[in-house]
Specification:
With 243 residues, the protein is α+β, with helices and mostly antiparallel strands. 36% of the residues lie in helices and 27% in strands. Strands 1-2-4-3-7-8-6-5 form an eight-stranded antiparallel β-sheet, sandwiched between helices.
Length: 243
């Protein structure tokens, strides 16, 4: 796959040396090749790298974000998509050994397919890359989530939100499982609560099953060692899911 991009042999070593085995297990060869072509010259970058392309899955855009990790990075990414009117269909989140976030998102919007079918889709991709990179270097509080759109089916058959938080074998990282009715902006609402408590996101698995989402996150942070904070986090997540 890498040879298709005309990359010299060995160019991948600097990036791959920073990646855990879990990264290679969760991405296919085509995505790994795309990431390597985009990032091999920016392994130690101080600025966010954002690359977007037409999704190989045939719907919307695939967006790559690589940046020094920070507690609210995932929330700021989701906040940009929420404010720009994109739905996050899938997110693969990875933290490198050198402390960088390497995240890939599958996004779409009600009008996105029509725009991508036009002759100016490259301008749209450049716009997303530029605006998202700017959003990630902005300071200040996270924006308020947009009011999520709820389908008629969800209104008629709502799903009671559920949140579970349990430690891993060493009680150093935690598995957070979330289940709720799907709506736009839901992932941002979750990410915003995590950022508020300075909870770091290590891995994320986003699953949409019809009108229901089943999301799993691997998280850590000093606050999670306190039972009171754990209960508060679960309560705030339930409120965010029900909003």
């Amino acid at each position: 796959m890498l040879s298709l991009g005309m990359l010299p042999l060995g160019i991948e070593k600097a990036l791959w040396a920073t990646l855990e085995l879990s990264y290679f297990a969760r991405h296919d060869a085509a995505d790994i090749a795309w990431h390597t072509r985009a990032l091999h010259e920016h392994v130690q970058t101080a600025k966010p790298i954002v690359q977007a392309r037409l999704s190989p899955l045939g719907e919307g855009l695939q967006v790559l974000v690589y940046a020094p990790d920070q507690a609210d990075l995932f929330a700021r990414i989701c906040g940009y998509f929420d404010g720009a009117g994109f739905n996050i269909l899938d997110a693969k989140v990875h933290t490198t050994r050198s402390g960088y976030a390497l995240d890939t998102f599958q996004v779409n919007s009600p009008d996105l397919d029509e725009q991508l079918a036009g002759v100016n889709y490259r301008d749209l991709i450049l716009y997303v890359e530029t605006q998202l990179a700017q959003a990630l270097v902005a300071s200040g509080p996270l924006p308020t989530p947009a009011r999520g759109r709820i389908s008629r089916r969800v209104k008629s058959f709502p799903i009671s939100p559920r949140v579970t938080l349990r430690p891993d074998e060493r009680a150093q990282r935690w598995l957070l499982a979330v289940s709720a009715s799907d709506r736009s902006g839901l992932l941002y609402s979750i990410a915003r609560v995590l950022a508020h408590h300075h909870v770091n996101l290590q891995l994320a698995k986003i699953t949409t099953l019809g009108e229901r989402v089943e999301d799993t996150f691997l998280v850590d942070g000093p606050a999670l060692q306190q039972n009171k904070v754990q209960l508060q986090l679960e309560s705030e997540l339930l409120d965010a899911l029900a909003a």
